[in-house]
Amino acid sequence: MPKRTDAYAVPFEVPELSFDEAVSLAADTGRISGDAGPLLETVVDMLDELGRPDEHYDCLQIAGTNGKTSTTRFAAAILAGEGLRTALYTSPQLVRYPERMEIDGRVISDAAFAHGVSAAVEAGRRINAARTAAGQRAYTITPFDLLTVAAYVVFAEARVDVAVLEVGMGGRWDATSAADPVAVAITGIGLDHMRILGDTLGEIAAEKAAVIKPGRIVVLGEGTHEPEVQRVMDERCEACGVTPLVVTHEVRELPRHVGDMLAFATATRRTTYEVRFPKPSYQPQNAACAIHLVEAYLGRQLSPASLQLSLETCPTPGRFDIVRRRPLVLIDACHNPQSCENFVSALDEVDEDVSKRPLLLIAALSDKDVSGIVRTLVPAFPRFAVTATASDRALAPGELAQLVAEELEREGRAPDGLLSVYDTVADALDALTEAGEPLVAAGTITLAGEVAGLLRS
């Protein structure tokens, strides 16, 4: 159950940044240095300097490749429905940086965001000054380090009961692991960030399984059941002396149209929960994982009525998300072959006729399994527009278009007339909107975010 402590205050004076200054620091990807290596100690020392704001509430941590954002959101919604003051930390944002931090289902204010970043910046400055004075190398503080520490401060000052934290990458060295979560969940494992985490499912699973530690509640989602991954999880749990909760679910009713209700059931150690919510077919396994995690954390059965309402009304931005209806624009943040397969399966359950589907607007990041993404998405759509997002990791439109063309030719479809190329997302949206073209945007989280930002601004 949640800990309740005295009010938290930053233990030193904080020079306050403006919101624009805070965003500029958060977006400064040039601060990430490959020379620094994975240093969790950076965040630990910053939190120590700040008087450990993360110890003023309980933390639940969600790791994995696929489904972790949705699982994090579902868990936070369920906790709030059970009456707890709940914080959510997730990444990346779709449109604006404050979206990464929510309290009781509301994005924090710009002022709170700027204050949290200001406190993190000053903590970093103070520890680096001390290290330099002691003849030690100054830490390289990454934007994710900065944002994670900022979130811990904001949540402590808001006196939350519990915070649900989405791992940014991996788990072993992730900034969210600087806290001491009382419970962790691991969702699906896929080939992602291979240049950093490893080339095989086993290597990647090992990085994510590092969040399993003695004394913690451990929930293993359905995406961990693949033999190579399950072996890694079982070995880690045995080494830590913990017995994991293993998630399963059963779909009772599929949606017939986008936005229709889907019914599923999941059996925990205490009871069987039955839920109906307006989500695509890939979401029940994530909701089920959240249910197991929250029930185990609270140590009691959940209220069925509160659970139903919490899941039915929980937003999942960028996941099968309609951001415009005329002409239709649907975005999905699928960003690796596994999540793309889930997305395509959800489309198939609504309508299997590929010829009737909208055009696919696709972009990808160069550090992903782009060939796998293309092989999964191209057969599911009749026509294509290729672009690049503003990310410094974006794959050039020409390179992506070549991969799409090769896949079309492999299928026996001539690329001429089926494929167009645009330099930017804005250019693509302008041209397709002028033509009255309905579209689905998928392939990377950054594409979903840019489309949402352009259409909702």
Account of the 3D structure:
The chain is an alpha/beta fold. Helix content is about 40%, strand content about 15%. The protein has 15 helices and 17 strands. It has helices at about 20-25, 40-50, 70-80, 110-135, 145-155, 195, 200-210, 225-240, 285-300, 305-315, 335-350, 370-375, 395-410, 425-435, 445-455, and strands at about 60-65, 85-90, 100-105, 105, 160-165, 185, 215-220, 245, 250-255, 260-265, 270-275, 320-325, 330, 360, 385, 420, 440. The strands form three sheets. Strands 4-3-2-5-1-6-7-8 form an eight-stranded mixed beta sheet, sandwiched between helices. A six-stranded mixed beta sheet has the order 12-13-17-14-15-16, sandwiched between helices. A three-stranded antiparallel beta sheet has the order 9-10-11. Helix 1 crosses helix 4 (about 110-135), helix 3 (about 70-80) packs across helix 9 and helix 7 runs parallel beside helix 8. It starts with 18 loop residues before the first helix and ends with a helix. The model is unreliable at about 30-35 and about 195-200 (pLDDT under 50).
Key words describing this protein structure:
single chain, 457 residues, alpha/beta, 8-stranded mixed sheet, 15 helices, 17 strands
Counted beta strands: 17
Major beta sheet summary: 8 strands, mixed
Taking all residues together, what is the mean pLDDT? 91
Overall shape: it is: globular
- Whole-angstrom Rg: 22 Å
- Alpha carbon gap, first and last residue: 40 Å
Uncertain regions spanning at least 5 consecutive residues = 32-37, 193-198
Structural class: alpha/beta
